[in-house]
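Sample A.
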Amino acid sequence: MKKKLLLTAFSFLVLLGFTACNKLDVIGDKSIISFDAVIKASGNQVTEDSGFGGWSLEAPDKTARLVWSKDYSKTSSLDVFIETDVQPFIDAGLDTSKLPEGMLLGDKIVVGTDMGNDTLTYDGDATPLASYKQIVNLYRGNLKYHATLDHFGIDMTNGNMFEWAKNMATNDKDMVFVLNPQVFIDAGVDPNKVNGWVFAKVETMDAKGKKIQVDKLLKPFDLDGKN
């Protein structure tokens, strides 16, 4: 009887562990499906960036883009980053000399993250989706789920994100470029006056799982309406 109870308990723990793994993999599986949908909806806005060695997803208004690497061992600095026009920030009061070193490249603001130095290998051709899957497989900690907006996202660190809808059919914000406004405020920007960006309070969770409101600069797009 005791042996039977132990086997039953063990079976329950195995099932519980399997269920937990499945729940954890929702971010992996579902984010791949939804990212693929964004790529397909973006059409020719997704291109190869041969100079960088990766892929570029350009916003419909061409003022921002997401860039991600094919092979981290060949990327000299950032492996995934957001790039956006600096002029709207200058028009809103930005003193570019007060930005952190490396954040301004020419006429672009760049924020992102260095994933590491891994040599990425592929089963078949390297594609934009296949390179995203590498993030899922190797750097799951950089992927987030934003429950309030029903978005997945790539964490660029320091409060910067690229987010996309889990389901574009039920979401009017299919992709969103997200910037932490504080660095710009510290450099003289009035965040309410940055053309093309929305300064807003966004509900998220702190490290303890408590809901909090944080300030963000948002550039959202509805890919169905291309705006």
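Sample B, a different protein:
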Amino acid sequence: MAAGAKGKVLLMDDEEMVRAVVGEMLKMFGHEVECAKDGEEAIEKYLKARESDAPFSAVIVDLNVPNGMGGRETVERLRRIDSNLKAVVSSGYPDDPIMTNYREYGFNAVISKPFRVSDLNSALQLLACA
């Protein structure tokens, strides 16, 4: 999943600007990207992709989604669907217990906002090893 490794990534974030910018970063690395604004939409897209011939190779989810399902619950539900899920949690609150102990909550990698392209690449490299 590192730069150069092509995959299909599901990016969930409630902020349209974040989806656009991070989506472009992922495309720079050669990934196909689909976006969701909350957990409900992400789960729906994940299920559709699994039923097709093009499942997601990874998900990147925002931890906090006002007025919607956030990253923790989304990944809990996705893990019930796919125990091999490769998931990155993202948040602007780096001191949140989920961010500091992300593996205990079912995530393979963590990335704190705001982040650089190199930070995203590092998180994707962790997924490749997961």
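Observation for Sample B: The chain has a mean pLDDT of 92.
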